[in-house]
Each structure stands twice: as C-alpha cells, then as structure tokens.
Design a protein that fits this description.
It is built from ten helices and eleven strands. By secondary structure, it is α+β, with helices and mostly antiparallel strands. The chain folds into two domains: about 100 residues, Phosphorylase Kinase, domain 1; about 190 residues, Aminoglycoside 3'-phosphotransferase, Chain: A, domain 2 (Alpha-Beta Complex), CATH 3.90.1200.10. Strand 3 and strand 4 form a beta hairpin. Helix 3 runs parallel beside helix 8 and helix 4 packs parallel to helix 9. It is globular and about 60 Å long.
Length: about 325
C-alpha cells in the first residue's frame, strides 16, 4: 500500500479527519482512531493508517483515490480475491464520497517488507504467484479484468515516446538530459520495429490474472496462524495478461526473477503446458521488457514540470535495463 514509515502523525481532531469520517460510515463508529499516520500523499491518492491505541490490535489502512483507478481495486477485493486460494488482506469495504473519488479500507499488512534476497520470501512469492496465475484461469474473472497483453504495453511505449517528444524542448532539460531522452527514444523506436517478433514470442505464453506491479514496496510478509504469509497490495495495474510481467524483477540490471522459479515451475506446469526452465527464464526477460516500458511511461508524464532530474535520471536507468532485456530476448541483432 505504501512505505512502512509514516510521513507524519496526526493526533488532534482525528474525529474530523476525512479518513476517520469515511471509516466511521463503514464501521458504524465501533472503531474510533486515536492516531492517524500519513503514509502517502500524492496528487491522485492518499493513504493513512488508523490506530485506536489498543495494544495488539491491528490498524486499519485507508486509501483515498480517484474512482477511475480505485474502481478496479474495489472489484478485485470484493469479487475476485475471495475466489482465489491465495493469502490476502482482510477487506473492510469501500465508500464512494463523490463522483470522482472513493475510500478503500483494508487490514494493515504490518511492518515487514518483502525482500527478494531472502530465500524464504522468494519461496512465499513463488507459491503465491503460482496459485494466483493457476487458479485465476479456472474462474470467469477474464470477463471483468482489463487486458494487460502485449498490445497494452505497446500503447504504453507509444504514449511514453509521445510524452518525451512533446516535452523535449522543456527549458529545464539540460543538453545531457536531452541526450538521455533521445537515447530512450531510439531504443523504443528499435523495439517498435521488432514488436511483431516479440508478439510471436508471447503467443505460446498462457493468459491469466496478473498483478502487473509485483515488487517489494507492494508486498508485505505477515505472521499467520501457521507461519509467515505473503500479502500483496496496490492492484491498480492488475489485469488479464501474460504471467511473465509478474515474474520479472522490479528493478536493477539483473535479469533474475525475485521469486523461486523452481517452485513456480512446479505449480505453473498445471496450466502452462510444455513449460520448462529455459522457457520460464525467457519469459522473465520478456516480462522485464514490459515492465521497463511501463516504468518509462510513468516517468515520462513528469517531463512537463520544471523539476526533471528524477524522471530523466530514472529513465536513463530504465533504458539501460531495457537494453539488457532486449539483448536476452532478441540477441545482439536488436542493438
């Protein structure tokens, strides 16, 4: 849902805070927060942790977001996750407060973040993703999920390129930054030329429900009745597509998955026919291409502002990671 540490803590007048007022309509006034921790404050979303001061009682997470993004999460929490045999957070409800926004309330996931270098966490992630991908195919959720197929990531690539072109004359961009952006454009132009080949590679991949933003900041490890369990947050990007996107690493030059592929393979063979380890590793590289295109797209939306250091430097990293992934997928011919 957000980073563990609060940005700030609100104590006075909590009963009049919008998060508290919205929760009271869900809870009927049974749980009155004494402390409200601010976990995230963005233009399009806000996240709070509500505590009532009772020792040992798990807090409530309140997420305020636009209806167009929160609508999908609401459907997933209310209609889809209850159908799947995977660990999940308790969902308390949703409150629509205006035509444009809503509140979503969830059990607090706790303080322990997922670590991709922890073998026990990698095992949990492999089981969780394996059963998500396997069991979702046995339901009718494809009918209510947006597509996250290659065409979706192609549009992400095109939009990202257009954002760069439209803002490349931003006076805040230095010559060095412009060179970085042109390099990103060149890489995506090359990929666009070879997109048909990439689509053919994906034809043998099964389609299923994907989280599409499976990364440490969206994953928590909490103590269950029989041991640690993995809980995944932020379903805004979820949809129906290739499982490759969930298997790819979220950042870094490494092409190694953040889940135990041997364990995932044992589960995925039930729905991914003729799957073997080389095919699975290749799928990780393909998923990495999709994820970096999405990351470049998100960063490109910030290029119209005077503060361009973060988006440009982020895209410089993504471009290098994308180049490495393309080499694994296409070979040196893509360079």
């Amino acid at each position: 849902m957000a980073e563990n540490e609060p940005i700030s803590i609100l104590i006075n007048e909590n009963d009049r805070h919008p998060a508290s007022l919205a929760w009271q309509q869900i809870d009927g006034g049974k749980y009155a927060p004494q402390v409200i921790e601010v976990l995230q404050q963005h233009k399009k979303s806000e996240i709070y942790r509500l505590r009532d001061g009772t020792p040992g009682r798990r807090a409530i997470i309140a997420k305020h977001c636009l209806r167009k993004t929160g609508k999908l999460e609401r459907v997933i929490y209310e209609e889809i996750l209850p159908l799947l045999p995977i660990s999940q957070l308790r969902y308390y409800g949703c409150l629509e407060v205006a035509e444009s926004d809503l509140w979503i309330f969830l059990e607090d996931a706790g303080e322990q973040s997922f670590s991709p270098v922890d073998d026990s966490h990698r095992l949990l992630a492999a089981h969780w993703l394996g059963w998500l991908h396997r069991s979702a195919r046995q339901t009718g959720v494809v009918e209510i999920l947006p597509l996250r197929d290659p065409a979706y990531y192609y549009e992400m690539m095109r939009e990202g390129s257009e954002n760069i072109v439209q803002n490349i004359e931003n006076p805040a961009l230095t010559p060095e930054y412009i060179d970085i952006l042109r390099s990103v454009l060149t890489k995506m132009e090359t990929l666009e030329t070879n997109w048909g080949i990439l689509v053919k590679f994906c034809q043998d991949f099964p389609q299923t429900m994907v989280h599409a933003d499976f990364q440490p900041k969206n994953i928590r490890i909490k103590q269950g009745a029989t041991g640690d369990v993995l809980c995944v947050l932020d379903w805004e990007m979820a949809g129906w597509g290739s499982p490759a996107v969930d298997l790819a690493p979220s950042h870094g030059m490494s092409s190694s998955s953040e889940v135990d592929l041997t364990v995932y393979l044992a589960i995925a063979r039930e729905f991914w026919h003729n799957l073997d380890m080389p095919t699975l590793r290749f799928a990780v590289h393909v998923g990495l291409v999709f994820r970096r295109l999405a990351a470049i797209n998100w960063s490109s939306t910030e290029l119209s502002y005077p503060w361009v250091d973060k988006p440009v430097l982020s895209m410089e990293i993504y471009e290098k990671e994308l180049a490495q992934a393309l080499t694994h997928v296409f070979g040196k011919s893509i360079q």
